[in-house]
Amino acid sequence: MNALLWTHRESGFFQDASAPTSPPLERVAHRTSSWTLLVILTAFWIYVAMSNVLYANSMQASFATAMRERMFATWDVRLLQHLFLFPAFLSCVFASVRLGWHTLSRKIWAQLLLAVFFSALACPLLTLAEYLLGDSQYMGHPWRILDMFNASELPSWIASATNFFLTYGFGVALATGFTLYRRMRDSELRATAMEQAWSAARLSALRMQLSPHTLFNLLNTIRGHIAWDPTTAQSMVVQLADLLRQLLNAGEREYSRLADELQFARLYLELQQKRFADRLTVTLPPPDTIADAWVPSLILQPLIENAVVHGLAHHHGPVEIAITFAITEQQLELQVTNSFAGQTPADHEGIGLRNVAERLRVQFGAQAQFSSGPGAGSNWVAVIRMPVLHELQTSSAPKNSP
C-alpha cells in the first residue's frame, strides 16, 4: 500500500495535492479523479478475482469425476492470491499511467517490463497463499515452498503469467481510457470557462467604452448653458446626476428591464432637448405600454446618442427622434429612427453601432440581428431584433438582476 501511495503521489497525471502552485479547485479535481480511478480499478480487480475463482471451481468440478487429484487451487487460496496481487496491480497500473505512451519507441519497453513484472508474481504468490492457508503438501515440509523455483514449475509460471498478462493489459487499457476521458472533459470545461470569461470581459469592455462617451457629450451640452442660462444648467446638472446613477447601475448588470432602458433614453433625450429645444422632437412609448421584458443593459444608449449627434449634424433644421418596440412571437424588436438633412455623414457607422452589433453577437449569437441604414424618406433607422427575455424565464434572465 505504501508503494501505491508513493506512485499515486509522484504521478505526473495525479498531481501532489500539497503542491502550492495548484489552485484549490484543481487540487480537488485531481484528488477526485484519483479516487475515482482507484474505485474503478478495485471493481475491475474484484471482477477478475471472482471470475478466476468461479472458473477454477467449475473446472475442478469437471475433473473431479475423472481423477481424485486436485488440479486447481481452492477458492480461498485463489482469493488470497488476488489479495496479494492487488497492491502490485494498482502500483503497476498507476506507474503505467504516469509513464504514459508518448515517444512509444522508448517507453514501450518500460511498459512491457511493468507488465512482465506483475504477471510473473502470480505463480509464486499462489504458492505462498497455499502455504499460508496450510495446504497438505507443505505440512511438516515447509521448505517445499522453494520448489516453486524449480525448472519443473516453469510451465505453471508461463501459464499463470500469460493469464495475468492479459488481465493487466485490460486494466491498463481501462485506466488509460479513463485518463484520456478526464483530460478531454477537463479541457472542454477549461475551454468553456475561458470562453465565458472572455465574453464577460468583452461585454464589460464594451460597456466601459460607452459610459465616458456619453458623459463627454452631456458635459459639453451643460457647458454651453452655464454662461447664458445658469438656471437651465443647474437643472441639467441634476438630471445628469440621475442619468449617471442609472448609467452606473446599468453598467454593473448584464441585463436591464426594457422600462429602465427607455427611462434612461428619456433622461438623455430630455437633456439634449434643453440644448436643442427648437430643433429636437422626441417620441417615446407611453410608460404604461412598455412590455415586461429584459434587454442587454445600455443597448439603446449608443443608438440614441448616434441619432442625436448625426441627426443634428451638417444642418440647422428640425430633427425628429422616435423609439418604438414590438413583440412578435418570441422576438423583440427595438427601433430608433431619426430624421436627417442632406447627405448621410460618412462616420454614421461609428464605434457605438459596432459596439451594439458586437454585444448582440456575444450575448445571443445568430438569434439576434442588428441593422442600421437609411429608411423611408429622410430617416435613418436602427433596428435590433433579439429573443424575448421574460422575467419568468430564469434560464435567460440575468443572474445579477435586482
What is shown here, in short?
This protein has 402 residues and is an alpha+beta fold. The chain contains ten helices and seven strands.
Main sheet, how many strands, which sense, barrel?
5 strands, mixed
What helical percentage do the residues reach? 55-70%
Give the overall shape, derived from the CA principal axes: rod-shaped
Quote the average pLDDT: 76
How many domains, as an integer? 2
Cα separation of the termini: 55 Å
Judged by helices, strands and strand pairing, the structural class is alpha+beta
Tell me how many strands there are: 7
Spatial ordering of strands, largest sheet = 2-4-5-7-6
Provide the gyration radius in Å: 38 Å
Low-confidence segments: 1-22, 392-402
Strand content: 5-15%
Q: What is the number of helices? A: 10
What would your notes on this structure say?
This protein is of the alpha+beta class. It folds into two domains: 2-192, no CATH class; 229-387, Heat Shock Protein 90 (2-Layer Sandwich). Helices cover 60% and strands 11% of the residues. The protein contains ten helices and seven strands. The strands form two sheets. Strands 2-4-5-7-6 form a five-stranded mixed β-sheet, with helices on one face. The chain has a two-stranded antiparallel ribbon with strand order 1-3. Strand 4 and strand 5 (331-339) form a beta hairpin. Helix 1 (2-10) packs parallel to helix 3. It is rod-shaped and about 115 Å long. Mean pLDDT is 76; it is low at 1-22 and 392-402.
